[in-house]
Design goal:
111 residues, 4 helices
Length: 111
């Protein structure tokens, strides 16, 4: 995978994180801030580890995009209807968990 293909979803997620930080600053609650920074930190860490180890393949890139899309859905729900927010957050958490499991198995099984 090219560096651009791997890092593009990371850059989009960084942009979303900063946009939510500044846009919601006046009305953000502590739980909203924790939701917006907890999962992305794990996402950034995964990409930062996968890149130098050359394990950022097509599966990682595709799951990265799915993760970023679910974060956008969660961000839209944070700004609007809070009732459905849990489902979007859970979806993004499960995608990120799948990414970490895939990455860990590739490393541990020497794939």
């Amino acid at each position: 995978m090219s560096l651009t293909m791997v890092l593009l979803p990371v850059f989009v997620e960084v942009g979303l994180t900063f946009a939510l930080l500044f846009w919601n600053k006046a009305r953000a609650q502590a739980s909203d801030a924790a939701d917006e920074f907890g999962l992305p930190t794990l996402f950034y860490a995964l990409i930062a580890i996968a890149l130098p180890l050359r394990h950022a393949d097509l599966v990682i890139v595709l799951l990265s995009w799915v993760f970023v899309v679910t974060r956008f859905v969660n961000a839209g729900l944070v700004s609007g209807a809070k009732d459905s927010r849990g489902l979007a957050w859970t979806a993004s958490a499960l995608v990120l968990l799948a990414m970490w499991l895939y990455f860990a198995l590739k490393i541990l099984l020497l794939l």
